[in-house]
Design brief:
The chain is of the alpha/beta class and 299 residues long. The protein has helices spanning 69-84, 115-133, 150-156, 184-194, 196-205, 211-217, 229-241, 245-264, 267-278, 281-296, and strands at 2-5, 8-11, 16-19, 22-23, 28-31, 36-40, 44-49, 54-59, 90-95, 99-100, 138-143, 145-148, 160-164, 171-172, 222-224. It has a single domain (39-297), classed as 2-enoyl-CoA Hydratase, Chain A, domain 1 (Alpha-Beta Complex), CATH 3.90.226.10. It binds ligand LEDWP2DD. One of its GO terms (biological process) is fatty acid beta-oxidation.
Length: 299
């Protein structure tokens, strides 16, 4: 069975066929009498309440929900499907992996691969961000675990962030700790969220904020007890969905267009920058040392 996205084909556990954003094949979808639907792909779980017009995407890429190319491909397909289905006005992003929202970019995609792979990977990262950041739906991140780097970017690209109150659930753009640099569009999103000075400080030091600090700096909008993250996200969503879609969507676009355009107008150059940066020997070495440290942490 295969998951087909554009020219890319991956083995997948379910039959999901996508062409031009339309699901053609059978998928594990069930519709309950109460308007609840559930779509299952291997790494992304989509639950939806048709009556309320709200879908929930749960990241399901254990152990740490790293943003592998396969995960991103499935995620983009699910997102497109929801975006194109006018039933859905709101989307909650959360994790199915206990204690981890997302560990960010998959370091194995950036290590020991060829240049074409790095380019393909970075294009998928760009695509994911543009789709999230410019979504017409209301996006609420229900952050139920650690959220470094790319995981933080996904949360920051939502319209509202609810973080579980657990000191282990740190969030931030920690790229410099890995010896790498957050791209300009990660930086732009952070600046838009917490302001220039706080972003400069956080980015240079690679700060990962505990929940109370994240709330204080404005990186998240609410910190709530862990067992209330989903219910809080849902009540925030209800509040946001009370606003007429056309007015809210135009306003969102007005606020975000310049930031997104900044990348759109130089996507190819951004890919080339990433490829030449990440393929440097010194960067490969830093990433390998970091991965090794993560592995040895357990022993
Ligand atoms: C001239 C200038 C030009 C500039 C040009 C700029 C170009 C752009 C440059 C590049 C930009 C890249 C941007 C990068 C963004 C990123 O997202 S990088 C990834 C950052 N992520 C992290 O630092 C998180 C690392 N992980 C952790 O801190 C922890 O794993 C955790 C998430 C807090 C979970 O902890 P715990 O539950 O204790 O699990 P672990 O035991 O640590 O991990 C379990 C296994 O998972 C592996 N793993 C963890 N994270 C990743 C990952 N991100 N990718 C791949 N694999 C990961 C970990 O190694 C363990 O593996 P095993 O030992 O094999 O089980």
């Amino acid at each position: 069975m295969a998951l087909v996205a554009g020219r890319k084909t991956f083995a997948a556990g379910k039959t999901l066929l996508l062409r031009a954003g339309v699901w053609l094949g059978a998928e594990a979808a069930a519709r309950g009498g109460n308007g609840a639907r559930r779509f299952v792909s291997q790494r992304v779980l989509v639950e939806s309440d048709v009556t309320a017009g709200i879908a929930t995407i749960k990241f399901k890429n254990p152990p740490v929900n790293s943003l592998s190319l396969e995960f991103l491909t499935e995620f983009i397909i699910c997102l497109e499907k929801l975006e194109n289905d006018k039933t859905y006005r709101g989307l909650i992003l959360t994790s199915d992996c206990p204690g981890i929202f997302s560990a960010g970019l998959d370091l194995r995609e950036m290590c020991g691969k060829n240049l074409a792979h790095y380019a393909e990977y970075w294009r998928a990262i760009q695509e994911t961000w543009l789709k999230l950041y410019l979504s017409n739906m209301v996006l609420v991140a229900a952050i139920n675990g650690a959220s470094p780097a790319g995981g933080c970017l996904m949360a920051l690209s939502s319209d509202y962030r609810v973080l579980a109150d657990n000191p282990r659930y740190r969030i931030g753009l920690n790229e410099t700790l890995l010896g790498i640099v957050a791209p300009f569009w990660f930086k732009d999103v952070l600046v838009n969220t917490i302001g220039h000075r706080a972003a400069e400080h956080a980015l240079q030091l690679g700060l990962l904020f505990q929940p109370t600090e994240a709330l204080q700096v404005g990186m998240v909008d609410q910190v709530v007890p862990e067992d209330q993250v989903q219910s809080t996200a849902l009540s925030v969503m209800t509040e946001w969905l009370a606003i007429p879609d056309h007015a809210r969507q135009l306003t969102k676009s007005m606020m975000r267009k310049a930031t997104a355009d900044n990348l759109i107008k130089q996507r190819e150059a951004d890919i080339q920058n990433f490829v030449s940066f990440v393929s440097r020997d010194s960067i490969q070495k830093s990433l390998q040392v970091y991965l090794e440290k993560l592995k040895q942490k357990k022993h």
